[in-house]
């Protein structure tokens, strides 16, 4: 079991920056992958960025070059640095952890989300 708590959301003007944090209740060293998803009003939840245990990263095309995902295993925290924010980035951002149990079953854990609003 792992609890995830997001923070860092808020209101920012277009072109501005925000840094989201996802604090895990236990070590993330053994977690296969952690990522950020977002859900805008009236839309489905989509992948924003993911980082694996080996620190490989992948990004949605819409955020590539603007967002950076990173992890600090010592602090049990994953970050999402968001630069050059656009109004279409407005959404609730969710932290995700994907892990494999000893039984082989893959388990997903989710935070409650943090709201990012990009508006002038």
How would you explain this protein's 3D organization?
The chain has strands spanning 4-7, 10-12, 18-24, 33-39, 46-52, 57-59, 67-72, 77-82, 91-100, 106-110, 114-118. With 120 residues, it is mainly β. The strands form two sheets. Strands 2, 4, 5, 6, 9, 10 and 11 form a seven-stranded mixed beta sheet that branches. A four-stranded antiparallel beta sheet has the order 1-3-8-7, with no helix packed on it. The protein is elongated, with a radius of gyration of 14 Å. The chain starts with a strand and ends with a strand.
The biggest sheet, with number of strands, parallel, antiparallel or mixed sense and barrel status, is: 7 strands, mixed
Overall 3D shape: elongated
Number of strands: 11
Regions with little confidence, pLDDT below 50 for 5+ residues = none
Classify the helix fraction into a percent range: under 10%
Count of helices? 0
Strand/helix succession = EEEEEEEEEEE
**Alpha-carbon distance between the termini?**
40 Å
From the helix content, strand content and strand pairing, which structural class follows?
mainly beta
Task: Classify the beta-strand content into a percent band.
Answer: over 45%
Question: What is the mean predicted local confidence, pLDDT?
Answer: 95
Q: What is Rg? A: 14 Å
Keywords, please?
mainly beta; 7-stranded mixed sheet; 0% helix; 120 residues; 4-stranded antiparallel sheet
């Amino acid at each position: 079991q792992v609890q995830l708590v997001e923070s860092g959301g808020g209101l920012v003007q277009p072109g501005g920056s925000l840094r989201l944090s996802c604090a895990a209740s236990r070590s993330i060293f053994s977690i296969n992958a952690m990522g950020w998803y977002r859900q805008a009003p009236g839309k489905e939840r989509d992948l924003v960025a993911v980082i694996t245990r080996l620190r490989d990263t992948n990004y949605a095309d819409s955020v590539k070059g603007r967002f950076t995902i990173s992890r600090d295993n010592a602090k049990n925290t994953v970050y999402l640095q968001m630069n050059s924010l656009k109004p279409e980035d407005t959404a609730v951002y969710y932290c995700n952890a994907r892990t494999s149990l000893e039984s082989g079953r893959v388990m997903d854990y989710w935070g409650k989300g943090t709201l990012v609003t990009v508006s002038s």
